Amino acid sequence: MRFVVVTFSLLVLPVVTFAHHALFTYDDSKLVEVRGAVRSALWRNPHILFTVSSVSESGQEELWEIEGLSVNYMERAGINSDSFNIGDSVAVLGLPSKRDKNSLFAILTTSASGRKLVMSRDRARAFGLLEENTEPIRPVASSEQIALAIRQANGIHRVWTNTSRTGGGISLPLTDVARAAKESWNQPTDDIALRCEPAGMPEAMLSPFPIEFLQQDDDIIVRLEEWDNVRTIHMGIGSNEKNPPATSLGYSVGRWEGRTLVVRTEDINYPYLDDLGTPQSEAVEIVERFTLSEDENRLDWVATVVDPNTLTEPVTLPMMHWEWVPGEKIKPYNCTLSDNQG
């Protein structure tokens, strides 16, 4: 049986919940609970999927498609493919789809034994669902791994864990042509994430997953867990290559201003500014500022985007905040298409 258990606007829920890869298609004003038996489960990035067979109020069997966050997120929360077995009885509390009948984004799952698994910590917290008996996030590394990470850390060069995003909900100053293009964007057919195509700049940086900075000769390598992306920030003398080929991540040149790494990226051919279909052109230029805290435990990121073909004025993107969690590692992402995707 299914029923609405909570209805209110999540104005307290900031953009840090990462309206990532079609999650904006769910109604965040109410919660629906589905009780039934697990019929199938697909554990893969970018989102896990499982189905639950329930009985409606009229006594008819209903098959619900349940979507969760990524495998990587789930594993860090102590949830894996062994957490749900075919035939298990579960109660899933989540956000109903705005588009599809019998579709839910999972926030909290309860087994027949009463074990609760938090499927989306940010949303669970916003709805006041976090309790002492929910499964805690497990440590990410052993004491030996943590000690090694502490010895190897050097300024910005380490793995950073995303903790929050601020300054979201901005109204973009789009040109008429760009606004028309965004309005014609159709998520089910146009969202390239559904085809497992990696995000480009600047969307690649607006990620809830860890990132890592590595020194490679004079340059800085940035490993992004999401999509297994790798950026190169050219730092040496003569790093401004003439007419580099355009790529989805662009050509980046950096310099240090005190504790801040300033990076200018051009030659980007990624077609979108965000994951909501906002277009961008190859004339786009992005200036990023990575600021390291005095104690080197926090990294703040802010970026300004200039695109004369799609924006009527420069735009400052939401600020990303990372913290150093010694022992955290970049996990493989390995995005995989589901059986019913292209």
Please tell me about this protein's structure.
InterPro entries: DUF6152. This protein is mostly beta strands. The protein folds into two domains: 2-126, Beta Barrel (OB fold (Dihydrolipoamide Acetyltransferase, E2P)); 143-323, no CATH class. Helices cover 10% and strands 34% of the residues. It has five helices and 17 strands. It has helices spanning 71-76, 121-126, 143-152, 176-184, 187-190; strands at residues 2-7, 30-42, 49-55, 61-67, 89-96, 103-111, 116-118, 159-166, 211-216, 219-224, 229-234, 251-257, 260-266, 285-292, 298-306, 315-316, 319-323. The strands form two sheets. It has a nine-stranded mixed beta barrel with strand order 8-9-10-11-12-13-14-15-17. Strands 2-3-4-6-5 form a five-stranded mixed barrel. A hairpin with a 6-residue loop joins strand 5 (89-96) and strand 6. It starts with a strand and ends in a 19-residue tail after the last strand. Residues 1-19 have low confidence and may be disordered.
